[in-house]
Design a protein that fits this description.
This protein is α/β, with parallel strands linked by helices. It folds into 2 domains: 2-119, no CATH class; 138-368, Alpha-Beta Complex (Spore Coat Polysaccharide Biosynthesis Protein SpsA, Chain A), CATH 3.90.550. 53% of the residues lie in helices and 13% in strands. It contains 12 helices and 9 strands. The strands form 2 sheets. Strands 3-2-1-4-7-5-8 form a 7-stranded mixed sheet. The chain has a two-stranded parallel sheet with strand order 6-9. Helix 6 links the parallel strand 2 (168-175) and strand 3. The radius of gyration is 26 Å and the shape is elongated. The relative contact order is 0.11.
């Protein structure tokens, strides 16, 4: 289908290219090579717009990034056009319109290879497996030394789904706790159906815990949330309609309609905003909040993303979204309510440096194709 669409766009672009060069040369008396440049550029702009919104239908890259790539591909195509036209017309003495046709075939071949494998990267993974799921939702709760808070969160999740026509499983992943987190969860299994706890040892990090949870998830949609319920489970109300059109939906504390009920200390806010600026510049342009611990995925999108992940700790959110974009999954950011927990274990300065290190590591992995 992609090839058919691309061929159609190519035919339209070629027709425009040939028409423009003929008008420029025959009626406007413009020099042949200048006319070739002008007609090429006009046709290239047309092709960019049609391929962007019809052929490849990419949602994983920003317009700015694609336009830079488009300029690179088009510049090489333009050089090929000038060399070919000069060779065929002045070297082989071929009529300029015939030379233009031959040149167009060469340039179209180059454009297709470049756009298919670089600009638009048509590597979309089908996010529907075509068979029934055991649950509507799998809810993953990573936990580390959460014996004092985990009960309240799990009861809140259970109460929320009891009033919804949705089935769910709850997976608690105990990431090497040295307290009685697992004991508390096990004690709730008689009260809360389809609740399970997986104990990992030693502590590996939140990213690793969620990866384990995703591997065991059986729901059509997979949600992970914090053990302190800092983004309340009720925020799923916003997510469910969006998941019908997007493979990934993430909560954000920094959108106009976000509601910060209990705020973080000022130092954490400042460091978080500065970190987000770096994240947007390096990897995730346009994502306001990568670190909110409330994210939902289509089942197969989550499986495809998390099995490729290499970061176990603070930078895992960035990596997950970077992989989602790499494979053209639609990522939707939506405002949520958020309550900062006074018992948060985040250490602003130390964890900021860890996240920056992970950011560089993720960028190198993207450049080297490690996630492919």
């Amino acid at each position: 289908m992609v090839l058919i669409k691309y061929a159609t766009v190519g035919c339209v672009g070629t027709a425009l290219d040939l028409s423009f060069i003929y008008v420029f040369v025959e009626f406007m008396r413009i020099h042949l090579l200048i006319a070739a440049v002008m007609s090429f550029l006009l046709a290239a702009i047309n092709n960019f717009i049609m391929n962007k919104y019809w052929t490849f239908q990419n949602t994983g890259f920003t317009i700015r990034k694609q336009f830079i790539q488009f300029l690179t591909v088009s510049s090489i195509g333009l050089v090929l056009t000038l060399i070919s036209m000069a060779f065929f017309v002045y070297g082989l003495r071929i009529w300029y319109m015939s030379a233009k046709v031959i040149t167009s075939v060469l340039v179209l071949t180059w454009n297709f290879l470049a756009k298919e494998h670089w600009m638009y990267e048509d590597r979309i993974i089908d996010a529907s497996r075509g068979e029934p799921y055991d649950y509507d939702f799998s809810v993953i709760v990573p936990a580390y030394n959460e014996k004092n808070r985990i009960r309240k969160t799990l009861v809140a999740i259970d109460n929320y789904f009891r009033h919804k026509p949705l089935t769910r499983q709850i997976i608690v992943v105990d990431d090497g706790s040295i307290d009685d987190t697992t004991v508390v969860v096990e004690g709730l299994r008689k009260e809360i159906n389809d609740l399970s706890v997986i104990r990992c040892h030693p502590n590996r990090g939140k990213g690793h815990a969620i990866k384990i949870g995703v591997e065991l998830s059986l729901g059509k949609y997979i949600l992970f949330m914090d053990a302190d319920n800092s983004t309340p489970i009720e925020e799923l109300e916003r997510f469910y309609p969006l998941l019908k059109k997007n493979q990934v939906v993430i909560g954000s504390r920094y959108l106009p309609d976000s509601k910060i009920v209990v705020r973080q200390p000022r130092l954490r806010v400042i460091i978080g905003r500065l970190a987000n600026m770096l994240i947007q510049c390096f990897i995730l342009d346009g994502v306001k909040d990568t670190q909110c611990g409330f994210k939902a995925f289509h089942h197969d999108a989550a499986k495809a993303i998390f099995r490729r992940m290499k970061v176990d700790r603070f930078g895992f959110d960035i990596e997950a979204l970077a992989i989602a974009r790499l494979f053209n999954f639609s990522v939707k950011e939506t405002p949520v309510s958020w309550y900062n927990s006074p018992e948060s274990r985040v250490r602003p300065v130390k964890d900021a440096f860890r996240t920056f290190k992970d950011l560089i590591y993720i960028k190198l992995n993207l450049w080297s194709g490690q996630y492919n």
